[in-house]
Amino acid sequence: QVQLVESGGGLVQPGGSLRLSCAASGFTFSSYVMSWYRQAPGKERELVAAIANTGSYADSVKGRFTISRDNAKNTVHLQMNSLKPEDTAVYYCKARGRYDYWGQGTQVTVSS
């Protein structure tokens, strides 16, 4: 049974940091490209960052967010620094490979 379980979301003030984690099981993690998407209210889901061996980023988060993966622990992380109110969204973990798998999402709210 495939599972992607996100954690680490919450409420943070502008300029703060959060670290999201996604724990994967039920598939060959190391063979999949892992990515983080986000969806804000009333907006389409957008790609934030992806990692195969190295990370790639949306322009809106470059220099602030860092994606990393641990193939031994089947986890992927998103370190988010210098958070802005416009980063508020539900953040989803996605595995892309032979099949696509999605997590259930974790809410990130950036507000004073």
The biggest sheet amounts to: 7 strands, mixed
Distance between the ends: 40 Å
Taken in chain order, the helices and strands follow as EEEEEEEEEEE
Helical residue percent? under 10%
How would you describe the shape? globular
Rounded average pLDDT: 97
Q: Which class of secondary structure composition applies to the elements? A: mainly beta
Query: Using DSSP, what is the number of strands?
Result: 11
Poorly predicted runs are none
Strand content: over 45%
Contiguous helical run count = 0
Measured on Cα atoms, how large is the radius of gyration? 13 Å
Describe the protein's architecture and organization.
With 112 residues, the protein is mostly beta strands. It has strands spanning 3-7, 10-12, 18-25, 33-39, 46-51, 55-57, 65-70, 75-80, 89-96, 100-102, 106-110. Strands 2, 4, 5, 6, 9, 10 and 11 form a 7-stranded mixed β-sheet that branches. Strands 1-3-8-7 form a 4-stranded antiparallel β-sheet, with no helix packed on it.
Task: Provide the fold topology.
Elements: E1 3-7, E2 10-12, E3 18-25, E4 33-39, E5 46-51, E6 55-57, E7 65-70, E8 75-80, E9 89-96, E10 100-102, E11 106-110
Parallel strand pairs: 2-11
Antiparallel strand pairs: 1-3, 3-8, 4-5, 4-9, 5-6, 7-8, 9-10, 9-11
Structural features:
seven-stranded mixed β-sheet; four-stranded antiparallel β-sheet
